[in-house]
UniProtKB/TrEMBL annotation:
It holds the Pfam family Recombinase. This is Recombinase family protein. InterPro entries: DNA_bind_recomb_sf, DNA_bind_recombinase_dom, SSR_resolvase. It comes from Auritidibacter ignavus. Residues 213-240 form a coiled coil.
Amino acid sequence: MMGLELLTAEKDAAIIRDRQLRTVRLNAKKGRPHDRLPYGYRRVYDEFTGVLIRQEVHPEHSRGWMNMTLRQVLRNPTIAGLRVYRGEVIGEADWPAILPREKWERVNRALEDRSRRHQHFDSGNPSHPKWLLSHIVKCAFCLRPMVRIPSGDPRADGSRRNNYTCAHPGCRKVSVSIDPTDAYVVGALLGWLTKPESLAVIGEPGNDWMATVRQVEEQMAALRKRLDEAAEEYSAANITLAMLASIEQRVNPQIEELARAATPPVSDEGVLALIQAEDVEEAWERLDLIEQRRLIKMLLEVRVGKATQMGGKFDSTRIKVSPRYAPQPSYQWQTHDANETLQVDNP
């Protein structure tokens, strides 16, 4: 009997779980909230019956903002009146938006602009970086930043070779010599900055770009309107759920593609000064290490793969350099003052 009771209890638990998950999915499709209220909202209950009347924006005289949560709140689709299910926006929510969707999208594009990221180091600070690519270059296996670690075997003169090494426990598969890696990455960057195609991407974010952004926003609004109309048609039983899903599968990728096209180009003064210099290489050498690191981190994604053979010979094919503001697939990278085509993985 005990075994039968256990099986019955297990079956009942599975049924309850399925019902709860089904309720969560249905509430998500209807735009209803789930779990705790997001920051900035409150529930309003009837003072006599205690029944929930509505959910509304929290009044301005509430406890206020905290610096550590500001970015997290601004990135949250909830404040734009959007319902998120399993990390993806699935439609409009049934609560009022704190920010209009168009403004929320513009704010997030600004937050994603890498040229806004700055970090100040006092030259006397012991944490002042001493290596060009330390914590910038990444391991191709675990995708974590690599750090400078001296090799164990000294040279004939007693000095030790410095390497960028993946020091993450459980990986530690990649190590590469610092000097040739720095030279290779700098050559990739300077070669890119001297190309007209690159200047068109990062050097001229003027009126034409703003016109492009406005056009993209209009196209995205039209596609969202199409999704809303399809949802209304489904609610009115004019189309089936399969037809609605088919429309969403076609339209959502188009919206995502337009959102990527609306990513603003870099308009950084440091980059502009570098590409406008008569001698790019000389201008690069005049920059201090902090500025060089900032520009590389802003413009490039650098990953290092595992060596294919033992030995001290530098293998440049291990290094994969990708522009964060990617050119067209047909674009050919070359090192500065060389005809060697680089190994590039466009993101």
